[in-house]
Amino acid sequence: MATKVEKKAPFKGDHVGSFLRPDRIKQARIQKASREITNEQLRAIEDTEIIKLVEKQKKAGLKAITDGEFRRAWWHFDFLEGLIGVEEFVPEAGLQFSGIQTKKRAIRVTGEVDFSENHPFLADYKFLHEAVGDQHVAKQTIPSPNMLLVRADIETNVYENMEQVIPDLINTYQKAIQAFYDAGCRYLQLDDTSWSSFLSDEGRESLREKGFDPEQLMEVCRSVINESIAERPNDMLITMHICRGNYRSHYFSTGSYDAVSETIFGGLDVDGLFLEFDDDRSGGFEPLSYVNRNDLHVVLGLVTSKFAELEDPNLVKKRIAEAATYIPYGQLCLSPQCGFASTEEGNNLTEEEQWKKIRHVVEIAEDVWQ
């Protein structure tokens, strides 16, 4: 285990990770699909655009720098499909969001789940790490292990049920976390939409219809996270982003954190939580009273990534002050509520509007935590 050192993130003005794909990447993907360019040529284009993105993030005042998830089509499927024993398939329908359905894509477990040092995300991180340099922190985002549990079809000839997958899944993520650490990663974020199913009566009823007991499943999700990160090196920070869905400026679910507050604020061993608080769908700050650690940072997603209009900075500051009545200012941070492009289609705003949002977050954070 590494020597205990001060962890440098999350930062007071932070972000979730994904950015709108530039037109050059979108065009290159089309060219690759039609075999006009090779994988190598596509990657070279992605490299160039990621280097540009790194510099834009620095210029905007961010300390944590990502690759914008520019090499991915989806925030979670690309990573999960890279695991041993997991493959992509085309389902009958996409996921139903509020007013829109996603394109069709899903995953299934076809063999024993494991992590390989050949996982493409390791090479992607190494490129980012080198591009970021020593004055900023390269942040890697991956889906939480819960996403395989709740999104993957389980082949019965491999595992009889979800419970049988869990030991291999935990081992897989422990290997992945160590591999990213060995590649230089000190800031890892787990993205997780599984918690959204527990937030509303409708979500809980849907779980029951699928044969799950919501309380038992919530405990499984908590345990899988904690065991997956239990062996992380002391100087590696791991945060979690809890999301209600983000597809082309549409959401998937609603509900406050009340139903999960004791579990996520008092039962998860992560170093920080990125939380959606950008509209009434997320409820109030009262659940923050369950935070029982002075080293847990809560990143308030008070600035929406879904729309271009900039929030009133005074109102954002007022809401931060309200949250600070439950936990100290020193444990609070600010970010957009989600990324700008959880899938390659992206949200309904322009790149310039996106950067205005980022600068807005940074400027407000500088005023609040100066």
UniProtKB/TrEMBL annotation:
Keyword RNA-binding assigned: no
Q: Does the keyword Transferase apply?
A: yes
Superkingdom assignment: Bacteria
Cobalamin-independent methionine synthase MetE C-terminal/archaeal domain ranges (all copies) = 16-366
Query: What are the BP-aspect GO terms?
Result: methionine biosynthetic process; methylation
Q: Which UniProt keywords apply?
A: Methyltransferase, Transferase
Q: Name one GO molecular function term.
A: zinc ion binding
Q: Please name the NCBIfam families in this protein's record.
A: PRK06520.1
Q: This chain belongs to which protein, by name? A: 5-methyltetrahydropteroyltriglutamate--homocysteine methyltransferase
Q: Which organism is it from?
A: Virgibacillus massiliensis
